[in-house]
Amino acid sequence: MAETRPPDASRRSERSRRAIYDAALALVGEAGYTRTTIEGIAARAGVGKQTIYRWWPSKAAVLLDAFLDRAEQAAQGEPDLPDTGDLEADLKLVLRATVDELNSPVYDAPARALAAESVSDPALAAQFVERLLEPSLQMYVRRLDAARAAGHVRAGIDPRIALELLVGPLAHRWLLRTLPLTHEYADKVVEYALYGLAPRD
Amino acid sequence: MAETRPPDASRRSERSRRAIYDAALALVGEAGYTRTTIEGIAARAGVGKQTIYRWWPSKAAVLLDAFLDRAEQAAQGEPDLPDTGDLEADLKLVLRATVDELNSPVYDAPARALAAESVSDPALAAQFVERLLEPSLQMYVRRLDAARAAGHVRAGIDPRIALELLVGPLAHRWLLRTLPLTHEYADKVVEYALYGLAPRD
């Protein structure tokens, strides 16, 4: 679709959009999801609340787009997991980084809010999975496919299931707050998933 | 502590307690968690709302106790995972039953409500983990310990971490609604967790 708005308006709305994302993430972090309102986000972003209502149907939708925007910026030019040829080392690096992100106070409140809403709202969950979660899981699929081609993953392993043995345990600890998320834990999850619990003989 | 209430009063309050649990689970299933109120639970259970307020601080607390009560009834006399000596078969049985429970409409709405509240409320999460989740995870610890003693689990494996490779993937699919939960999926998770993703040679 051709961009028909003049460049100035486009730049202006891009600035507003970013300001809205920053405001939403910050407010949820400071005040909690329940106490965050569209009005509050608008005031902090310096835009009219009609601007937000025009672009998004709910505060959960704003939050989802804020995360998508962050994920796109973080992946800038590098939309894949590292591949040094050492699957174990690469996965440990990625899962340790995931632990750091999940433990970061800036990330925790808005990410939990989005996850909690998705747990109880199927429509939001569909958006969350399709636009944010599944694309990030597909990075694991590609890395595991490459490992299989290199002989580092058993033939017959379905990478879309295999990746859940890596991300599932971390998500379980984080979402349900069972035990602390540490680098040591991330390492063990990678080791157990790669080599299994049963003896090798 | 000695039971000082006369037997009749005790039986009556036991009946009320059960009626409140049934009402809470049914209402959340029918109307959703947000639209379920203490008043609604009281009306359906045929008790005064003060009875509920006297015993529980919130509707989430009622729901948690309702789940605990159900879990205690389900475990009646059998508070452990099956142990036929075949770890793979036993775990497949347990994970398939978990899939069935997570897919059951009666269970889904109240369990999701409790999980979603726990994701965003650390105080409720602490109760949820301590009283409901961790005791059920300890059943896996005991089964994996027995398997280790029998030589079916590698020496050096920490069973409290190992179990998360089994329950984490299922929880991830269920909570975040990524893909369907099926028996075939449960079987693969058990196989991958036991034998690992890396080739055995």
TrEMBL record, chains A, B:
Which ranges of the sequence are annotated as binding DNA?
37-56
Record InterPro entries: Homeodomain-like_sf, HTH-type_TetR-like_transc_reg, HTH_TetR, Tet_transcr_reg_TetR-rel_C_sf, TetR_C
In this protein, which residues make up the domain named HTH tetR-type?
Answer: 14-74
> Which species expresses this protein natively?
Streptomyces formicae
Q: Which PANTHER family does the entry link to?
A: HTH-TYPE TRANSCRIPTIONAL REGULATOR RUTR (PTHR30055), TETR-FAMILY TRANSCRIPTIONAL REGULATOR (PTHR30055:SF148)
Record's keyword annotation contains DNA-binding: yes
Protein's name according to its UniProt entry = TetR/AcrR family transcriptional regulator
Q: Which UniProt keywords apply?
A: DNA-binding, Transcription, Transcription regulation
| Keyword Transferase applies | no
Xref: Gene3D superfamilies: Homeodomain-like (1.10.10.60), Tetracycline Repressor, domain 2 (1.10.357.10)
